[in-house]
Amino acid sequence: MLSEKTMQIVKSTAPVLKERGTEITSCFYERMFKAHPELKNIFNMSRQQTGGQPKALAYTVLQAAENIDRLEALLPVVKQIGHKHKSLQVKPEHYPIVGKHLLEAIEAVLGEAATPDILQAWAEAYEEIARVFIDIEKQMYEEAKKEGAWEDFKPFVVLEKRRESETITSFYLKPADGSDLPEFTPGQYVSVRIKIPGEQYFLTRQYSLSDAWNKDYYRISVKLEAEEGQPKGKVSSYLHEEIEAGSSLEVSAPAGDFSLSGQTDKPVYFISAGSGITPVMSMAKTLAAQESGREITFVHAAKSEKHQAFKEEAEKLVSGNPNNRLLFIYSQASEAPAEHAVKGRLNEDLLKTIVKDQDGEFYVCGPLSFMKSVIEGLQKLGVPTENIRYESFASSLEMQIAN
Q1: What residues does the FAD-binding FR-type domain cover (predicted)?
Q2: Percent of the chain topping pLDDT 70
Q3: Domain boundaries, the chain
């Protein structure tokens, strides 16, 4: 237990962390990678370069400082980060390394303002925070083991590679040892680790499982990250251009807390954009296969019909119930869209025509700006916040920062 004095000192640092937090975390990552370059095998170095990861960590540190006297308030965020750590194989032995370099970064950035009392208080606070993470992640590892999941990364073979749209390609993955695959929760993701020729370290990325569970294969569907004026994504472009049926990949066990709720007969709304269709496709296919009779409204926004993935699958999954609805929204349609589609964007007026029951369950996934717009629109329509679940591929932490 932390002393009252320690908690008060840590809370008193919140204003400076709010102002200089990203500066501290950027310094932290620079120092840690210099001392432990092997950790570049775990971290997404692209997010280091864009500043997304330092910003997300700065937000987490600030939240820890503001809530140090009631860490239970952080449990939802801790569990979310814990799932990511589990998928990357972060272990207890990594936490002392992080703590050492975080304290050094605080001292380096704040200079004389980082008094011995502040550094000691943060050392004690970090130990307490790390213990919470380690305990939760230990429980996650143990639960996964009971459910038949594997530890670390496991060799898989690509059974099939299928182009779903102009930018999204699916990979059907089977364990190289031929073993059956454990069940996962619809909405979860796996980490894929590859060694690209010319790269010094492993590159690891998370991809949502895009199909309902079966024991024979997992399916991931990868968007080619190649926006105009931006460098191509190293991993997505390698998967699209170099990986074929018969290729080998290393895959972690499923993780993630963006999941389909059970034990209810409420109507369910799946609202996605771009590659955000992947986890909700897994959810929708699972729900449709259960034949529970729940009404499904499936809405997806894309640039055009060429960018629309899983068109036939989506049409099939809503066909089992006359009350189900399907809507594709194309922002750059060159001609009159086909059946189930409209031209435009998912704005507040269109959202009004979609939402028939504010007490339904809403699952939202896509780019950050899309997420904010949809969630704000749903709230204006009277949908309770607790009925909205979301997954942002930018980062759920960045979603909270933006809010």
Answers
A1: 151-261
A2: 94
A3: 4-146, 154-251, 268-402
